[in-house]
Structures are given as C-alpha cells and as structure tokens.
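> example.struct
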C-alpha cells in the first residue's frame, strides 16, 4: 500500500522555507534602512563641509527616499509572492493528506471496519 501524502520532512521544509523567506525580508528591510541612514549621514556631512548646498542636499535626500520606497515595495512584493507560493504548497499537501485519509476511510468501510 503506497501512501501519497506529505511526509513530516516535506511539511517541515515548507515551514522552514516560510521562515527563511520572512527572515530574508527582514534582513533586506534592515539593509535598506541601514543604507538610508548612511546616505543621510553622508549628505549631512557634505552639507556641513560646504561641499553641497542645502538645495542639493534636499535633492539627494529625495532621490534616496524614492529609491528606498521602491526597494521596500520590491521587498514587500517578494515576501507576498513567496508567501503565496508557500501557502499554495501547504494547500497541496493538505489536499494530499485529505485524499489519503478519505481513501483510508473508504478502504475501512469496504473491509467492514
């Protein structure tokens, strides 16, 4: 008798994959924030040293904010995509388990148990 259902190992890998994606998203978010602060610090320093004007500082800061927003949006999209993929995989496993359980019930019923 062969059972075609999700093994604990497979289910565990799905959970692990979901955690890894969430951790990666947090890491990317942290990297974006770190770069934002580094750029703000550099722009502020250049302005204090007279290397750029206040207007140039505002332009650079605005450009960086646009870039950060785009990076955060892409990070969110990636997280959502991976979560949808993982959820779909979990649904497939659940269906396999339910199908297997239904086959077992049918077999028991046929055998008079």
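> example.seq
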């Amino acid at each position: 008798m062969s059972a075609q259902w999700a093994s604990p190992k497979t289910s565990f890998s799905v959970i692990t994959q979901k955690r890894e994606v969430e951790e990666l998203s947090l890491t990317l978010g942290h990297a974006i924030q770190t770069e934002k602060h580094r750029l703000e610090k550099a722009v502020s320093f250049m302005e204090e040293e007279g290397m750029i004007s206040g207007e140039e500082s505002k332009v650079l800061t605005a450009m960086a904010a646009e870039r950060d927003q785009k990076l955060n949006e892409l990070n969110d999209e990636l997280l959502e995509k991976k979560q949808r993929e993982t959820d779909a995989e979990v649904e497939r496993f659940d269906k396999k388990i339910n199908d297997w359980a239904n086959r077992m019930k049918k077999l028991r019923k046929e055998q008079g148990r």
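> remarks
The helical segments are 8-48, 54-110.
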